[in-house]
Amino acid sequence: MAERQLATRQEPAVIPHWYSPDSDLPTLVRGDGSWVYDDQGGEYLDFVSQLYCVNAGHGNAAITERMKEQLDRVQYVSPSKHNDTRSELAGRIADVAPENLTDVSFSVSGSEANETAIQLARSYQDAPKVLTRWQSYHGSTYGAGALTGDPSTRATIEEHAATTGYAKFLPPLTANNAFEVDSEAELARKAADHLEFVIRNEGPDSVAAVLMEPVGGTSGAYTAPEGYFQRVREICDEYDVLLISDEVIAGFGRCGDWFGIQTEDVQPDLMTFAKGVTSAYAPLAGVATTSDIAEHFRDEGIDVGQTFGGHPVSCAAGLGAMDAYEDGLLDNVRELAPYLESRLDEVVEKYDAVEESRGRGFLRALTFADPDTGEPFFDPWTDDEGDNPVSEVRDIVMDHGVMVGGGRPDVQVIVSPPFTVDESEIDTAVEALDDAIGSVFG
């Protein structure tokens, strides 16, 4: 019976991630530069880098050749052993990371990198709690899901079981005017004061670390007001709390520098990464640490690990990706980011329903709100029924042959193109967005 069902079914046997029964999923079979192609001959401008990760674009030979060379030498080395490719990549990451970060521990995915970071932080600090922001996303495993401030993710993760040792604080956003501010400087001060209050309220000795993204990822590409991260660094130092920068999306050139936190001129104690480290050509993630933290664990040892952490073929892909970034792709982000920003600003000016354009580098979002009330047209966190016009915008953009992303909450469209795009491809994507917004909001 099972064999007959497999032989006659129309859908693949794969269960997709983030799957909705209403989804109409293309089958992608080829990629080249900023474009991907399906099995029906359709082509799409990949203006979301699939999941904010194919930074070097599709079909980059610098990466694939490195992977092939590694496959010809040794295919797998246990993470409990040293490997030349793994060590070379760790050194190159340390070379471009904030200067206080000297050592790297590899894992497999962004969720696991964040879980590794909090494991290291709790052990090093001998303290149980980690603080993260509301409206954040740090992964979908049980531990990383608990770090995440997006209620829809946490509700899914905690439907049958919950984790402990986490507390939340408010991000530096003006949405709903939670901090009642009139300026960016006041927002930076009040949001940082709020974090200090939470640390004091939780008990500083019980707080191991504060973990946050330097620029919001799927939570909406929001940036911090000037001075915020400097004050956060001061607060963490004052209360002996580690600062962890989640660079899973913001890292490896996405925001215009090697890592997002470098655009804030702040040095974290730990820094997680994934996605762009290999341009998503192979799974790889990790945590960069200070020398003090690294030496602590070298002296004490680590009794846990991940079978595929620092896989040699993935590390080879990482070396190829870094080659590609250094060979003009990072420069392309820096050169074209202002053009992308200006084109998106034109959309904001054209449509009252588009609230703002925000972000940094090649990580940007358009947010939508009712111009009369300032409230979302549809809030997926509170509304159980109804159609979401922002989701409809993305569907129409897809019909125009351009892929863009959705945010948490789903009141925004996120654009996160590969570093290979040129001005004409930016124009193509923005024009598709313009047409879609016009179709939905008039």
Could you describe the 3D structure shown?
The protein has 442 residues and is of the alpha/beta class. It has 2 domains: 2-59 and 334-441, Aspartate Aminotransferase, domain 1, CATH 3.90.1150.10; 61-324, Type I PLP-dependent aspartate aminotransferase-like (Major domain) (Aspartate Aminotransferase, domain 2), CATH 3.40.640.10. 40% of the residues lie in helices and 16% in strands. It is built from 13 helices and 15 strands. It has a 7-stranded mixed beta sheet with strand order 4-10-9-8-7-5-6, sandwiched between helices. Strands 1-2-3-13 form a 4-stranded mixed beta sheet. Strands 11-12-15-14 form a 4-stranded antiparallel beta sheet. Helix 3 runs antiparallel to helix 11 (312-350) and helix 8 runs parallel beside helix 9. The radius of gyration is 22 Å and the shape is globular. The termini are far apart.
- The overall strand count is 15
CATH class of the largest domain: Alpha Beta
The proportion of strand residues reads: 15-25%
Order of helices and strands: HEEEHHHEHEHHEHEHEEEHHEEHEEEH
Secondary structure tally, helices: 13
The biggest beta sheet reads: 7 strands, mixed
Residue ranges: pLDDT <50 for 5 or more in a row? Answer: none
Question: Shape, please?
Answer: globular
User: In total, how many domains does the architecture comprise?
Assistant: 2
Helix content: 25-40%
Distance between the termini: 52 Å
Task: Find the CATH topology of the largest domain.
Answer: Aspartate Aminotransferase, domain 2
Mean pLDDT: 93
Q: Mind telling me which CATH architecture of the largest domain this is?
A: 3-Layer(aba) Sandwich
